[in-house]
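Ticket opened by: R.M.
Priority: normal
Category: complex prediction / small molecule

The reporter submitted a protein together with inosinic acid and asked that the result be attached to this ticket for the collaborator who will pick it up next week. Submitted input follows.
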Amino acid sequence: MQGDVESILLTEAQISRRVEELGREIARFYQDSQDGIVIVPILSGSIVFLADLIRKLPIRMRIGMAIASSYVGTTIRPEGARLLARLLPRIKDREVLIVDDILDTGGTLRLVQQNIAEGEPRRICTAVLLRKPGKAPPDVAVDFVGFDIEDRFVVGYGLDYNDLYRNLPYIGVLRPELYED
Ligand code: IMP
Ligand code: MG
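Result attached by the on-call engineer:
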């Protein structure tokens, strides 16, 4: 599995330092929220980031989840995001923080943000671990970003190709000959 990765873009140590900083930033941002926040991770890509991030957030929180898919099988081209399921505590009048692994074309986040907005939360903010430059349209806003990365297909730390590689502890570039484009 390690041999399928051409180069390591972000090491375990780099990710862990940055997630800790993000945790401090986000905790400060929500320090006055009395009723706590509702965190909505977009599965499956955000699970590893979520697990690390929430343990760096010493604030009152509830956790829901949204399951979306943008790729099917072995393609790396977004094929239009679909929201497959949602499991949420009450969000009306509450602070919601959507958490995703990566902002690429923005289709997934736009869909989830619009869907959550229908539940009339007090405010929606979004945190992503990674952002690829210049591909998401301006209406897809993110408030917290771990790293801006170049436009390569990456795997690990929750991110997959064909549902594999999510358990790599770092983020790496997959050898291009391994995917069918
Ligand atoms: P978007 O809808 O194009 O912004 O894509 C977001 C979703 O596509 C993410 O939640 C990921 O699941 C997936 N994705 C986008 N870029 C990558 C990548 O480089 N590696 C793995 N998954 C990716
Ligand atoms: Mg994915």
